[in-house]
Write a structure and sequence with these properties.
By secondary structure, this protein is mostly helical. It has 6 helices and no strands.
Length: 140
Amino acid sequence: MSHGVLALGVTVVCLAGNVWYLPACVDLRAGGDRPHSRRAGAAAVVAGWGCAALTALLLLTPVPLVAVAGVAASGATAVAGLAIGAWLLRGRERREVEACMAAFGHGRGPAPRRSRGPHREAHRQPAGKRAASDPAERER
């Protein structure tokens, strides 16, 4: 397969990936309005798509495929590192929020139980004893 066909395929994928990298750019531009973990995750997304775009550009030049693969592999390594860092930051932020909520008495308790199943039917009145909601039923 020629370099041009590969470059065209990578370019089409990069253009279709705007649903990921445009919101990530917005998160990065928002700065302090977003949590650190979200900005780190957005940096991983932008780095990944930037690496894909660089790979597409390199495929258009007479660079050996080994060099292009090296650039793609180094970009994937950088993205993995940034994504793991964002994941660790998110865990720390979540623990901080839980500690603050516990300090204010809003700790996570057990979820309220919902009534489901046949025991719920026992609380209903029989059909003859219920008040009719339909006017036609009221006249009977």
